[in-house]
Structures are given as C-alpha cells and as structure tokens.
Amino acid sequence: MEFRRDPRRRALIPLLPLRLLLIVNSFASSVTAKNTVVVHERLSRHHDVQVVETNRRGHATRFAEDAARRGIDVVVAYGGDGTLNEVATGVATTDTALAVLPGGSTNVFARTLGMPNDALQAVDLIVDALDRNDISPIGLGRANGRYFTFHTGLGYDAAVVRRVEQRAALKRYAGHPLFVVAALRTWAFDYDKKRPHFSLDFGNGNTVDNAYFSIVMNTNPYTYLGNRPFDIVPTTSLSTGLSVVTFTSLAAPHMLRTMASALRGGGVRDYPWLDIRTDVRQVTVSDSRAFPYQLDGDYLGEIQNVNFEFVPNALRLVRSHP
User: Fold this and answer.
1) CA 27 to CA 103: how far, in whole Å?
2) CATH assignment of 147-312?
C-alpha cells in the first residue's frame, strides 16, 4: 500500500481508504449515542466506515463473519469484553483485522493492550495505528472450539459472573461494586467449598485432580478492580501458550492472601493451594458433574468437559497503543 504524509497530523495516510465496519453494542456500560457519533466521525476522516448496532447475544459474531466474507479490512468492536469476544470469534483465521474500542465496565483486553479506558481517547490511537498500517497477528485461546481473547474461568468465578448477569440492569451503573458484592455472596452462599468441582488433564499423565476453581489465561492481568490490575502470571502474552492457574482450596485465608498478592503486582506467589502452569498448549477440564464456566466475562452455563488449546496467529490485531 502506498502512503502520503498528512502535515497536520504528522502521520502517514493511506492513499486508498480502508473499508471499516464499526460494530456498536449500545447497551454496553459506557457506550453513548454521542460518543458513537464522534467515534464514527473520527474513523471516517480517512476511511470508508459502515456502522451496525447489536441487539442480542451472538449478533456481533454474525456481523463480523459477514464483514470477513465481504472482504472488509478492519472490524472495530465498540462495546464490552463480551462484544469484543464475539467480534474476535467472527474474524479469527480470516484476513480481516480487529480493532478494539473500550465501551464496557471493565474492558480487560483493551486495557491489557495499553489503551486508555475511554473510547474517545482510544479511537485516536486506532486511527494512528491504521495510518501506520500497524497490524500484526496474535494468538488466541480456544475452548470447545470457541475463541477467547483474555481468559476463561471455570468454577467459582463463573458462578460470580452468573450472579452478576442475573442483575444485568445494575451492571451499567455499578459495575465494579456489583462484582465485589457478587463475589462475596457467591463465596458465602452459592458455591460448594467442601468438595472439588473438576480435574485437569495436561497430557502424559500430568493432572490436577482436586480443583475448585481454574483460570485459563491468554493474557495478563486476569481482570481489574477499578484501576488496580489482578496480576496473576505476568509472563502470559499473546504470543506464548496459555497460563492455567488452579485453586485446590477456597478457604477464606487462602483466597484473601492470593487476592492481596495479585493486587500487589508482580504475579501471585507459588502458594501450596495454587497450581500454576505456563506456556500450556492444550488441557482438558472435566468432571462427572457439571460445573459453571465463563468465557471473556460471559457466562456460558454448566458443562462437564472443556478442551482448551492455544491457537497461534489466530487473529490480525490493530496494534493501537500510546
């Protein structure tokens, strides 16, 4: 592609505009009609932009799949982590790239990329990245054939997400406090802390048989509490295998010490109640009884068997960073 220099912005501008599809989840916590108009205007200065809005689960994936079939250059996902996951699923393994605009309450993946937690600041970074043609492949996790961008939770945290989604109307206005309350109530009343919930099989006879709660991570941190990251395994990245952290106890002192360690930064310590694996390419989680699981922050129900794998170079990502 040939470029010209724009003296006003000191950037290289493509001679031919890119074809963009902006997928908007207007129900996401921080998406507003005014911001959507501004985002569209800024993307449209040098590119051909179409806008569509989602209105139900799975809608963003269908939009993204159709965009890839039509040869759209970039799909911009403007919503929360659930919208991002759907769009990533729709364009994975295609030539269509993904750009991320934070519009949810937590925006884990966007913030992991170093983006500001504000769409109007982030859109300028996307524009600059498109000007530079800064697009490169990243790896994704896959659970039973479905891709995820940052993590999948099995057991306790999935039960927390389930409780939050039961109060979805409050999420837009009290996202982080709602999660804290849900985590406390789930631990106290909703989740069995006396028996293991599943086992993990890493192959070659390498297993964890007494698992209460596992996180399968494609990026680090695991999530954010306000501006504080839950720093679990800092070496986890989009170019390495998955990190798998399993709790073999949910005793209150163990949970509190692990949380404190994660909030201090530098990753959690190698406590006796934690099993930590890095650069995992494949793992199977199973039990005779169904257990809850969530993927990129969306509760997906209960299941008895989940096969995880790391898929390198699965997605072309617009590298929008400061």
Assistant:
1) 9
2) 2.60.200.40
224, 221, 122, 226: which is closest to 174 by C-alpha?
A: 226
User: Which pair of structure tokens corresponds to residue 81?
Assistant: 């982590």
Considering the entire predicted model, what is its pTM?
0.89
d(CA 31, CA 320): 19
Name the percent of the chain lying above pLDDT 90: 75
C-alpha separations of 11 from 65, 99, 113, 132 in Å:
31, 19, 21, 8
Tell me which architecture the domain covering 3-133 has in CATH.
3-Layer(aba) Sandwich (3.40)
Q: Is 13 left (phi over 0), alpha (psi -120 to 50) or beta?
A: beta
pLDDT digits (tens, 9 = 90+) for 135-167: 999 999 999 999 999 999 999 999 999 988 776
Domain spans of the chain? 3-133, 147-312
> Cβ of 189: how many Cβ atoms within 10 Å?
8
Q: Over the range 95-107, which residues count as b (16 or more CB within 10 Å of their CB) and which as e?
A: ebbbbbbbbbbbb
Q: Residue 29: what are its φ and ψ, rounded to 5°?
A: -60, -40
Upstream peptide bond of 221 is cis (omega within 30 degrees of 0): yes
- Which structure tokens are listed for 36? 């959507």
Tokens 């991002």 identify what position? 84
Alpha carbon 131 to its chain centroid, in Å, reads: 25
Distance set, CA 211 to CA 16, 58, 131, 193 (Å): 53, 31, 47, 11
Residue 178 pLDDT exceeds 80: no
